[in-house]
Amino acid sequence: GQSLEQPSEVTAVEGAIVQINCTYQTSGFYGLSWYQQHDGGAPTFLSYNALDGLEETGRFSSFLSRSDSYGYLLLQELQMKDSASYFCAVSPSGGYNKLIFGAGTRLAVHP
Amino acid sequence: GAVVSQHPSWVICKSGTSVKIECRSLDFQATTMFWYRQFPKQSLMLMATSNEGSKATYEQGVEKDKFLINHASLTLSTLTVTSAHPEDSSFYICSARDPPAGDEQYFGPGTRLTVT
User: Fold this and answer.
1) Cβ pair B46:A103 closer than 8 A
2) A14-61 residue pLDDT tens
3) How many CA within 13 A on the CB side of residue A43?
4) Which residue from A61, B16, B57, B105 has the fewest beta carbons nearer than 10 Å?
5) A61-88: average pLDDT
6) Which of B97, B107, B108 sits opposite A97 (nearest CB)?
7) Cβ contacts (< 8 Å) between A41 and chain B: which residues?
8) Does B32 touch chain A (CB under 8 A)?
């Protein structure tokens, strides 16, 4: 099976930088994804790491280390609208590209 | 980007009745769709993988006779919650991939089911 761990809550101020860590246990997987979900809304895709290293997309970056079974999402220049839940998810091998989600991290951005 | 719709967006039903939720890929064909359930302030739990033209693959612990999935076309998958009970009240979300567009999964807006 698969299991993912991420912090339950993170608090930061506008303009700051926040890193949300994700550690996982899985017998095999294609990659690690990150999704954002605002309350009452659908998850939206942020990034995907299939290979080790850093992927940068605007203010958001994501990192993966397969040898450490670890990844993180880095949010820079935080804005109030970034207050949401952030989920890491693995795509297990042999799983038709299905996603297994972590418990999620609630990010609260304050003025 | 690709768009996935769900209908209805919310539904209230009485205990013991069945409810059907539709998931449509609007501008792409999806041979595979996924159904998730999410309780308040919790994560998305994968329920099943819906495959066009074949039986769905259910995750461990999900009752296939209670959550009937039909994927009759490349743009439509349906989830029927049979004999619904109050504990089935949840947010049901579907998703699909558009492979030419990359690794992203596109999620529908979700359906809020309340069983009274």
Assistant:
1) no
2) 999 999 999 999 878 888 999 999 998 999 999 999 999 999 989 999
3) 34
4) B16
5) 96
6) B97
7) 109-110
8) yes
